[in-house]
Structure formats: structure tokens, C-alpha cells
Predict the structure.
Amino acid sequence: MTLPNFVVIGAMKCATTTLAVQLAAQDGVFISDPKEPNFFSNDEIYAKGTSWYESLFESAEGCSLVGEASTHYTKLPTYSQTIERFRAVLPDVKLIYVMRHPIDRVISQYMHEWSQRLVSGPIDDELAGNPWIVDYGRYAMQIRPWLDAFGPQRVLPVFNERLRVEPQAELERVCAFLGYTGTPAWVDEGDQNVSGERMRKSPLRDAVLNAPGLKQIRRGLVPKSLRDRAKGLWRMKDRPELSPAVRGMLETLYNEDLCELSSMLGLDEPLTCANFKSITAGQVMAFAPAGSMA
């Protein structure tokens, strides 16, 4: 049976879906459906067994690169057994870790969780009551165990900011890391998995709208402008704003983590929330050899 030889392991809301879509568009590359099986992280899915996981890649015959992309894999402390399970099933896998300005990421995740009805209050209150949302953007904390387990040569750092300004070059770099022998080409698919475009969950609404035959009738009788206006009622209209106090607290926390990340990347100038976008957009980075990391 075929198993992945690469996995995009996170981070959440950093363009992992965009990268997976681009990789899947290349000849000879297979991405699982679903893209995020969460096999190694979620106990109830892991309990299905390795045979179930292998079945996700049955259609990968003839593909030299086979992968998946589950952001749950870098969600400490929520899923603490992920790496141990990885090493048992995929000991030689290559890993891709995508990052983004941590403040932008945490706001985007809050919007995502709001759409899933996991949070409902103001962003300041929800971050205080759900520290895991903040933890998922502590990149050094999340990736350090992976570097220890698999070695820095098997983990590729990718930054959302550089992926946006140099998409073709970054796709080529990712493919070179994976050992792709073809000529990759970026496909214009637009932004994928945008939090602000998500409608808030509503089982009753979805049951009515997805009733057999009703979807076709609605599209035929209701103008698209009215349908879009109705969808807007279920979306977060404005991007939430952090209070100065909470933003300052997050910047202090994230700057400490980014300093450690900078050491892992062998950077002379440490990353901070203030310089993150300019440095990550302008440089190509790799994790430093194990002996040189602080």
C-alpha cells in the first residue's frame, strides 16, 4: 500500500490549503481527499487503524509524491501523541511547516472558530478563555519537537508572506525539497480557505438550503446579488480588533517565541512581530543544522 512521503503539518490559518492545492495541481503529485485526515492527531480517527489511513492513498498509483496536509499535527498541547504516532508509521517522511505573522494568524483563527460556533464572545475575552488559540501560533514551541524527532533537514519552513510575493519561486523551492523532478507551475486558484468568507454554522439553515431540488430552484429564481446579501448575514462583517492591552500582551509572548524560532533558523536578526513581515517576505530560510541551534 502507498503511504505519504510528505506531509504539510501546519500551522493553522497560514495558507496550508493554498499550498496543498498548488502541489496537487502538479503532475505526479497526489494529495489525499480529505486534505486534512487528522489521522495521527485525533484519537477517534487514529483508532480506525493504519489500513484506513492507507486507503486514502489508493488512487496515488503512478505518483512520485504522495502527501496530505493536516494542521492538527502542530497543535500542542491539544494533540500530544502526534509525533510518536508519526514515527511509528512514517519514519522517513518529509515535513512542511507554514507560518504567518502570529497576530494575523490568531485573529484569523478566532474568525474561523467563530464560524464553527466554538467561540462567540469578543476576541479579547475568547483569547483569554481559550489559550490554545494563542498557543497554535507559538511556532518555535510547536516545531521544536518535530525538529528533535526528524531532524532539521527533513522539515522545511515556509512563510505565508513570502508565498504571497514569490508564489512560483516558493512552489519551486517546496518541490525541490520534496525531490520533485518535473517543472512545477503555480496555478491561479485565488485564496483558499479564507476565514472572512466562511458562513457561521447553522444546521437548520444548511438542512433547508441543501434539501433535494431546492438548491437548483433557489439558484434559478433568486438573483445572485440577493443570495450574496443573505450569505453576508451569516458572516463576520468586520475583522475583529484586539485591544491595545491584549495586542501588547500577545506581542510580548510571541516575540519570545520568535526569538527562539530565529535561533532555529540561524538568523542574525531575530524575528519580532514588528519586523516579521519584511524579513519573512524578503528571505528564503531553512532550519539550521542540529548542532548550530541554540
In short: The two ends are 40 Å apart (CA to CA). The chain is about 45% helix and 10% strand. The CA atoms of residues 255 and 272 lie 5 Å apart. The mean pLDDT is 90.
